[in-house]
């Protein structure tokens, strides 16, 4: 089993369904965003995934709490990288990754992956902003990691490529 504290491995273009031209399009859209815009986009994806699930499923697996904490960080409230990282898996084996289960509907696991990816990215930002060393897994995250998160959301068919690009374009305009 993969280490639940590690960010998922990202290899640009390694997943079927995303063509090199689409990866380039997303890379350019991501590059047009400032750091806060990239974080806001990750939160936006997490919210879309939360909305795609039945409320009781989102609550049961911890997505509701995770999205609330991501939104708090986005709003400038004091949320640490450690607090975010603990959402993935803590010392008591509690966290989003504890709920990944191949027997469950794929949509719930996809939501966990997208929200988990958003957590990884924002935890990476939080650790860097605080000048703290990056824990294993989070140290593998960078701006390109957002493409992996997008791919998970596209695979779940919760968002479309156009919807994602439109959201990023809107965030880029806000940051100008």
Task: Write a short abstract of this structure.
The protein has helices spanning 20-31, 35-52, 55-60, 63-74, 81-88, 106-130, 145-155, 161-175.
Task: Describe the protein's architecture and organization.
It holds the Pfam family Imm6. InterPro entries: Imm6 (IPR025674). This is DUF416 domain-containing protein. It is globular and about 40 Å long. It has one domain. By secondary structure, it is mainly α. Helix 2 packs antiparallel against helix 8 and helix 4 runs parallel beside helix 6. Helices cover 61% and strands 0% of the residues. The N terminus is likely disordered.
Give the helix/strand layout.
Elements (H helix, E strand, L loop, with lengths): L19 H12 L3 H18 L2 H6 L2 H12 L6 H8 L17 H25 L14 H11 L5 H15 L1
Helix pairs in contact: 1-8, 2-4, 2-6, 2-7, 2-8, 4-6, 5-6, 6-7
Describe this protein with a few key phrases:
176 residues, mainly alpha, disordered N terminus, 8 helices
In N-to-C order, the SSE pattern is HHHHHHHH
Span between termini: 43 Å
Helix fraction by DSSP (H/I, runs of at least 4): 55-70%
Unreliable stretches covering 5 or more consecutive residues: 1-6, 8-16
Question: How many domains, as an integer?
Answer: 1
Strand-pairing-aware structural class: mainly alpha
Global geometry: globular
Biggest beta sheet attributes: none
Q: Rg to the nearest angstrom? A: 15 Å
List the total number of helices. Answer: 8
For the secondary structure, the number of strands is 0
* Percentage of residues in strands: under 5%
């Amino acid at each position: 089993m993969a280490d639940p504290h590690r960010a998922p491995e990202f290899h640009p273009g390694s997943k079927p369904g995303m063509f090199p031209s689409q990866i380039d399009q997303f890379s350019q859209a991501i590059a047009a965003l400032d750091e806060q815009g990239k974080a806001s986009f990750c939160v936006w994806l997490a919210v879309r995934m939360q909305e795609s699930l039945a409320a009781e499923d989102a609550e049961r697996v911890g997505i509701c709490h995770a999205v609330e904490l991501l939104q708090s960080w986005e709003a400038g409230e004091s949320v640490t990288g450690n607090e975010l990282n603990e959402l993935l898996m803590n010392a008591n084996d509690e966290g989003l990754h504890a709920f990944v289960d191949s027997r469950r509907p794929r949509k719930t696991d996809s939501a966990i992956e997208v929200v988990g990816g958003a957590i990884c990215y924002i935890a990476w930002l939080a650790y860097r902003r605080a000048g703290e060393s990056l824990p294993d897994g989070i140290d593998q995250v960078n701006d390109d990691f957002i493409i992996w998160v997008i791919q998970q959301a596209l695979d779940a068919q919760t968002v479309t490529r156009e919807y994602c690009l439109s959201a990023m374009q809107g965030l880029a305009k806000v940051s100008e």
